[in-house]
Amino acid sequence: MRRITRIATVGIASAALALSATACGGKKSSDASASPSESGQKSAAIAYDIGGRGDQSFNDAAYAGLKKAETDLKIKGAEAEPTDGEGEADKVQRLTELARKGNNPVIGVGFAYAPAIKKVAPKFPNTTFGIIDDTSVTGDNIANLVFNEEQGSYLAGVAAAKASKTGTVGFIGGVEVPLIKKFEAGFTQGVKDTNPNAKVLSQYLTQPPNFDGFAKPDLGKAAAQGQLDAGADVVYAAAGLAGSGAIEAASAKGKWAIGVDSDQYNQAGLAKYKDSILTSVTKDVSDSVFNLIKSVEDGKPTIGEIRYGLDKDGVGLADSNPKYKEMADVIAAVEKAKADIIAKKITVKTAP
Amino acid sequence: MKKFDKDRLILGFAGPVLALVSAFLLTMIVLAATGIDPIEPLRLMVENASYEDVQILIVNQAGTYYLAALAVAIGFRMNLFNIGVDGQYRLAAMLSAVVGAAVTLPGPLHLLLIVLVAMFVGAFWSGIAGVLKAKRGVSEVVSTIMLNAIATSLIAWLMLTKNLGVQIEGSNDLTTGDIAESGWFPAVSLGDGLELYGFTFVAFALGIVYWFALNRTRFGFDLRATGASESAAQASGVDAKKMIITSMLISGAVAGLAGMPQLLGETHTYNLAFPVGVGFTGITIALLGRNSPVGMLFAAFLMAFIDKASASLDQNGYAKEIGTIMKGLIVIAVVVSYELVRRYGIRRQQQKVGEELAAGHAMKTEKEVAA
User: Transmembrane region positions (chain B) (predicted)?
Assistant: First the structure.
């Protein structure tokens, strides 16, 4: 008796499940809202990486590019953020929804979008898809926006070695992934080429699949404190939002921090600590996003690999901090290294 | 067989219903208190869930969650708190992906091998906690949490390109290599690229197996008996230590399966973006569903609904973290309301027994007077 009712319940539940999945079908989430193209206004979309908008770093740089496109090109910008612990299907869903709503281009911020773009791009041949930090997915409508992070980090290494008094500098990587290792490789090489006796303390905040190292400032703060206690007086954090904790720690001790991705001296969220931000390794995600949107608006989308290096100012070192501008010897060394890299006299390693 | 116990049924439903209603009300209060329209986000979530593509996401996610919840529930029935489901699931998914990519076998065999490896790895990882508990009395709560952390580091190390990881040219991602198509679980295609993972159905079928094994087998009886009272079970001839290890092994094997819908249906490789936290959601679901196969099914759908329906809230100008708040409040509300309902149930039972005794006594005295 009891058994039968239980089995019946299970049966009803699964039948209801099947019904809900098929019967009322046909309607898609993106069918609901009127597509922007109908309202006559063109629009572009970006889908953020872990941390989302407000990370004062990588994602915010992409947002800045979209913002610029909104004002300069009079287009409408759409954004979408990821959820913690989501799977590939969720990314596919997000890109599909953005594309179906008529956004063009649709840009995935971060390499994690690569498998999703591979699945979605062929379904929307008239939409341009951009992906930042990845060249493994290619197609007739895919633009790969990549950067020579190691070159910018090399310059940071030169600046750090020159600015350091103790001869010890710190590197903090957000999550131990190949991308961040490029930052570490460039930085270490820059330090060693400038001062062979200098010591580089290297630390990663978390190991994948734990991406807290890009998201939790307290982790960056603790790691930076450890390195400062060990004698480092310049700390370079390539850790997204977590890097702001490292900047805070360096500022509290009156030491130097080097920012990443955005020019963090000018980030409103870090204004309190900006005097301690020696410089930032900029990665011109914002321009790359803007350029792609502009090329689509002009009717000539730039497809394929678009590499931003030191030569095109796609990566570089910010000089917004007046105190940095006063350090003539540091600037001279950085400029020389920059010229050497562009002239290919120095080749920067991409892996430590 | 048994009289249909209406009271028990009502009390059984009262807990979850009370929890959900109060959690939703609390969410609305939180929204209102922060100056956000309390109704609109919830309405948008319901609207989102009426779309076909979101429904598929919900069903697929529910399958994964259901497996994780079953793994947790097996432990719970035995009075073991397996917090390590997340680590077991990730390690199992990773190693089975490695094996799956390394070999090519005819379809069903390839799938079977991947699934077996996943179960074995999951069981091995939870078995460590089981053995520690049985032989050394180490609390499984502590050991499984630590094993989660160890699994994270172990995976990170194994995923290095010098070990088992593969970095595709031009990609910044690390994978374990692609599994050949013979190792993809057939999916139910609903057109337009929408697919229900085939393994989702395996997940729901396992719910029936779980119910049968626990309620209709000698093993299930031993397990529940040991969970209720270890010493009493021991006295009646159950080897409690063996039960601890066995149930941890089974719990881990099921946890290992939790990664299969995603691995065999979607990614076909383990990469850096493989979802985390599934095991912890499983704990919530097992609690909410009170370890019952049907209850957990509903709970799994509820959690998947909150996840997927809240995902696009930010495009309508609301924070998607509303979903996270909701999940958190549900957990608190579940704990509180189940305790309230339990106390009410006990009081009610005492009252009833008291009334029946009093009535019996009255009848007796009446008889005596008559005599």
Answer: 56-76, 88-105, 111-132, 141-160, 196-214, 244-264, 270-288, 295-313, 325-341
Nearest to B277 among A84, A133, A305 (CB): A84
The answer to whether the CB atoms of A27 and B51 lie below 8 A apart is yes
Question: In this predicted model, what pLDDT tens digit does every residue of A41-81 receive, in sequence order?
Answer: 789 999 998 777 877 777 888 998 999 999 999 999 888 88
Domain that holds residue A176: 149-283+321-342
The CA–CA distances, whole Å, from A149 to A81, A201, B46, B173, B320 equal: 24, 19, 43, 16, 32
Please indicate, yes or no, if residue A226 is contained in any of the structural domains. Answer: yes
DSSP string covering B212-237? HHHHHSHHHHHHHHHHH-HHHHHHTT
What burial letters (b/e) apply to A236-259, b meaning 16+ CB within 10 Å? bbbbbbbbbbbbbbbbebebbbbb
Q: A106-108 and A142-147 as β-strands: parallel, antiparallel, unpaired?
A: unpaired
Q: Are residues A129 and A192 in the same domain?
A: no
CB < 8 Å to B3, chain A: none
All domains of chain B, ordered by start, with CATH? 37-317 (1.10.3470)
Is some CB atom of chain A closer than 8 A to the CB atom of B52?
Answer: yes
The amino acid present at A20, given as its one-letter code, is S
Closest in B59, B156, B297 to A13, CB measured = B297
pLDDT digits (tens, 9 = 90+) for B135-185: 999 999 999 999 999 999 999 899 888 889 888 888 888 899 999 999 899
DSSP state of A255: -
* B188, A245 contact by CB (below 8 A): no
- What ipTM score was computed for the predicted complex, to two decimals? 0.82
Question: Is the separation of the CB atoms in A189 and A348 below 8 Å?
Answer: yes
In degrees, rounded to 5, the angle at the alpha carbon of residue A116 between the alpha carbons of residues A113 and A119 is 150
Q: A27 and B297 in contact by Cβ < 8 A?
A: no
**What would the pLDDT profile of B87-117 be if each residue is shown by its tens digit?**
999 999 999 999 999 998 888 899 999 999 9
CB–CB of B172 and A177 under 8 A? yes
Across the A:B interface, residue pairs with CB atoms under 8 Å apart total 159
3-state secondary structure of B368: helix
Residue A141 and residue A56 share a domain: yes
